Amino acid sequence: MRDRNDFRFRVTHPIFEEDGSLIFHHSSPLIKIDKNSNLEWLRSDVQYHHSNERDKDGNYWHCVRYSSFEVDSRYVGEDFKEYLDHGIRKLSSSGEILFDKSISNIFLENDLGHLLFSVGDKGFTKDPIHLNDIQPVEKDTKYWKKGDVFLSLRHQSMILLYRPKTNKIIWKTDKKLFHQHDVDIINDNKISIFNNNSKDFITGDRVDGNNQVVIYDFETKEYSYYLNESLKKKDVRTITHGRSQILQNGDLIVEESNYGRTLYFNYDGSQKWEHINRASDGNVYKVSWSRVLHKEEDIKKVHMFLKEE
Prior knowledge:
By secondary structure, this protein is mainly beta. The chain is built from 5 helices and 21 strands. The chain has helices spanning about 75, 105-110, 115, 230-235, 295-309; strands spanning about 10-15, 20-25, 30-35, 40-55, 60-65, 85-90, 95-100, 130-135, 150-155, 160-165, 170-175, 180-185, 190-195, 200, 205, 210-215, 220-225, 245, 250-255, 260-265, 270-275. The longest helix has 13 residues, at about 295-309.
C-alpha cells in the first residue's frame, strides 16, 4: 500500500463519466484522464484521499488534506507532519475550486473545538478527525437540503450533516458507530453507514465481531442493522476502509477492502456472489474503493461509451 513508485498506482474510488473519462487519485494529486488515458487536468495543491463523489449539477466533491494549514497555527503548529488538517472541496467539471473548507475550522466555528483538543490525557492528538467519506445531498427533504453534504469522520466515530451555504452543522451522531466508513443516502429520511465496528483495545485496533451496515431513520430517530446475520456468517471484518451500498431493489454490496473481498447479498440475505482479488502469484491484494454502477443513468452511460468504441 505504501509502495508508490512510478510503476504502481492504486486507482481509488474512480468517477466514470459518459464520455469515458475517469477522475481518481491514490492519496495523491487528483487526476482526470480522457477515454484514451490522456491527461485532461491535474490538481496537486493538496492531497486528495478517500472518496470522490459527483453531484446532480456535475460538480465533484472530495476529501482533501492540506499541507499548508487552514486551521490557526496556534492550535496545531506549522509542520504538516504533526497535524492532519482534513477538508472538503468542491470542484467544477473542469477542475476549478468552487468550495473549500477545513473540517478543523468547521468544528471550531460550530463550537466543537473540544472534540479536537480535549480528547484524552495523552496530550496533543495528531489526527482527531480522519475524514473518510463525503456524500452530497441531491434534493431537498424534510431533513436536509440540496447542497448539504454528509461527512464520515473515522476518529470521531461520527457522521455529520453539514451545510456549506451557511457553514453550519445541521445534525451529527456518534451512536452505534466505531471507526465507520461510507455514508449513503437511502431515501428521503434514511441513511446507511458502513460501520467497521473496530475498537482500540489494548491489543490494538480490532473488529469486535463483524462489520455492520447501520441504518439511521431521521423520522423515527432509530438505528437498525441491515442483513447483519449475513455479514456475520461470512465473517466480514475489514479493520480499515470498507464500503457498502444498498441497491434500489434491497440487495447489498459490501467491499471488505483490507482482505481483497467483494460480496453481493440478495435482499433476503442470501449470497449471490463473492469475488476475491487474488493475483496469478496466489496472493490476495486489497480492493480499492470500488464503485457500483447500478442506476439506470449510469448503465446508459456505459452502453453509450461502449457503442462509441
